[in-house]
Amino acid sequence: xxxxxxxxxxxxxxxxxxxxxxxxxxxxxxxxxxxxxxxxxxxxxxxxxxxxxxxxxxxxxxxxxxxxxxxxxxxxxxxxxxxxxxxxxxxxxxxxxxxxxxxxxxxxxxxxxxxxxxxxxxxxxxxxxxxxxxxxxxxxxxxxxxxxxxxxxxxxxxxxxxxxxxxxxxxxxxxxxxxxxxxxxxxxxxxxxxxxxxxxxxxxxxxxxxxxxxxxxxxxxxxxxxxxxxxxxxxxxxxxxxxxxxxxxxxxxxxxxxxxxxxxxxxxxxxxxxxxxxxxxxxxxxxxxxxxxxxxxxxxxxxxxxxxxxxxxxxxxxxxxxxxxxxxxxxxxxxxxxxxxxxxxxxxxxxxxxxxxxxxxxxxxxxxxxxxxxxxxxxxxxxxxxxxxxxxxxxxxxxxxxxxxxxxxxxxxxxxxxxxxxxxxxxxxxxxxxxxxxxxxxxxxxxxxxxxxxxxxxxxxxxxxxxxxxxxxxxxxxxxxxxxxxxxxxxxxxxxxxxxxxxxxxxxxxxxxxxxxxx
Amino acid sequence: xxxxxxxxxxxxxxxxxxxxxxxxxxxxxxxxxxxxxxxxxxxxxxxxxxxxxxxxxxxxxxxxxxxxxxxxxxxxxxxxxxxxxxxxxxxxxxxxxxxxxxxxxxxxxxxxxxxxxxxxxxxxxxxxxxxxxxxxxxxxxxxxxxxxxxxxxxxxxxxxxxxxxxxxxxxxxxxxxxxxxxxxxxxxxxxxxxxxxxxxxxxxxxxxxxxxxxxxxxxxxxxxxxxxxxxxxxxxxxxxxxxxxxxxxxxxxxxxxxxxxxxxxxxxxxxxxxxxxxxxxxxxxxxxxxxxxxxxxxxxxxxxxxxxxxxxxxxxxxxxxxxxxxxxxxxxxxxxxxxxxxxxxxxxxxxxxxxxxxxxxxxxxxxxxxxxxxxxxxxxxxxxxxxxxxxxxxxxxxxxxxxxxxxxxxxxxxxxxxxxxxxxxxxxxxxxxxxxxxxxxxxxxxxxxxxxxxxxxxxxxxxxxxxxxxxxxxxxxxxxxxxxxxxxxxxxxxxxxxxxxxxxxxxxxxxxxxxxxxx
Lengths: 519, 519
Hints:
2 copies of one chain form a homodimer. Chain A is mostly helical. Chain A has a domain at 184-516: Neurolysin, domain 3 (Orthogonal Bundle). Helices cover 62% and strands 3% of the residues of chain A. In chain A, strands 1-3-2 form a 3-stranded mixed beta sheet. In chain A, strand 2 (254-258) and strand 3 form a beta hairpin. Chains A, B: It comes from Coccomyxa viridis.
């Protein structure tokens, strides 16, 4: 189904056929849960942005009560009965959006009800214990203090996955939580191709490239001016302040309670202009996806983001494909020159080079550039899959981590704090999360290329600060279709004409960095 | 029971006697409802202070879902059964705080479960319809457009009251919603005494008094400086920013989600320094009460505010007894002089006079000073009681309103917009609410007098900007006892040694204004 059809698809909330009443009852229950989810979203945002410190315990109690109420609704036997009746009827009489509503609700039902309370409780406890253990272990660079948590997560995730779907590998079932419709076989295919292209490109850049001059972005930049500039850019990109807010928090994020109540946050450091700027544009990309959700299906799972990877594609499309492009530097350079007295003569080419320098040594994922980032992800993906498959054991992890860092990224961590302990994810049992970052980057490259084809003036528009054409294109092709498609590949097929094709991403990087580094 | 005992009372969550298990089950249910109430409180605060305008519909849906969940919990038959068992056992084995928990829970149970859904629904609808009708009627100064709403409210309130307690008068049952343990017979006694004292005092002030010079507070005052000053004063009075926030909203209020999460708001106008200043101190009084709630009984109704009147006593104690006193002017005058360049030589006596001028004409309640305010309240109290008793009919209301304005306050509204239509309360069915404003003022005078007796240095402390003695006294005597006492009179007896005595209030006003107006 083409995206243009998605947008103009006539809305009907009832099937023509037999199960009209059941479908309506299902929607009522789903909408109530969605509203409860929105309230929890607001509690979370408030906690990060507004809540006084002394209220931490009361907020924990509020979240726990909400989680209990949500669990009761999610496991309500009436909901199960409705889904049984609707699923047994196949797709007869339901349009594609309605079919997606039933499919997604069924999926959530299975993932919630198959897990006994004992396991759900232990997972929640291990999240807290794991975070504590990880913090200590990283602080002391002592992997042994984190290893028991990791052992227990591996065993818990295997147990959980077998309960949800014993016919599939534990990793595939875990992955499904973050990237619907994706399999490790498919990721292997994609990541192998990416690794084969990126490792030599990186080698070339490092050995033969002429690095751009980054000195212009070094120094001290007033944070108030950074905030004013970034807020005005977020609005120019299309963030709607009538349906959202912009605030400051320690860790930038996009949250809120509803597509009409999207709350993004930013953070600014006076010694790092790039981080604040690209961070704000990254969150704007997430926020535009949220504000673009299809209100014709308000409160139904079909209007939710398809996956973490697709969500990340929207932040990375704006952060990388747009904001790290030369046309955007043409728009941005005079703005920076106006905002900061030390940049009076900033030129677009100079800014473009400085924003796109590849790090000489890329040891830490969260500080990586777009060339080295996927190699960090591939390393983590391989290891977490091998842990679940049993081909790598927990005690061997630090050694293998360091070996692959050397092989893929050309640098070796000096200790485990800088190596295997650098990320928080595994401490919370988030196995299957890492790949979505790079899938997002690849979706973004492919989506951007399709938009370029459909909107021939795109680069000129960006240079002129005109972003509404791109935003509308994304609204129609990506945002409005929500979870209509069962996988990222299907969404790519509908929006760009082919499933995810990593060669688009590789081609983009190769072309860009060949020019930039004069390879 | 003396307040000092209240504070040191040993906490036990279980009765020694037979119904220990039932009491614990009751507490668990009550705490969950309290937590849900806190979440609703946060939703309300956010709506007034943070929410983007476009999210209004989604917020309404969130509030409605929360109200539905709360209603289910409030009317849970298991809760009713527990209360039956606990109530039938009398107070055997329960300490006074536990007895108060059971008493308050029983009271809430009756007030919720006796009202059929039909009436609850109609009341909710009539609140919205009433607000619309009132807005139109006031805009056109056309009482006829509001009269049908008022007729329906009178009938609905009679019906509701009869369902809750047919043995008492409809007005007394309605009053109980806002002022627990209060009766109209007791208010008649109090208000008659107040009216007999105030009407001649006001006449004397107007006819024989020498008004203080108010020119010093006229002019334009930078709102940013006002906000900075008021926020610093709120902190000096004792507002704890670790357990609360200070923000700005269109209508100042104090809300939040818990005693550790108290959120007060203020508003500043550049042409009115007094309103911003006294408003901020008023809200600080409410906020200190909320932050002072007894966390030994967290989530239980005994730690809630006793009544609207007692809550108002805390805001008015700080706004009037403290901030409108001469010692406070001694503290405030140099601060104002520092904050506003047009007040370089401001003297305490000059400021005290300007802050305490009695309006020449007091037509509007919300703009009234402390001398005329009670007369506005007495007029409304008489009329709403007479409406429910049937001794005044809705069509006669505007005429009687104007006659009593002339008689009590010496001025006659030029139309109904300025007269009977000036307040929003009746449009929402809030019959029994008005008296709490003036009961609060009288509680405040009596409480302050008791504090003065216990803290001999009180006035010198205030002049020196030392407020912690008064705050601690209020924490122990008023805040911590929450809803332990069944009425405001009982609280007054425990905290000050005698039930509410309006002569303390009259004496305070007479003495203050005799000196100020040189009577």
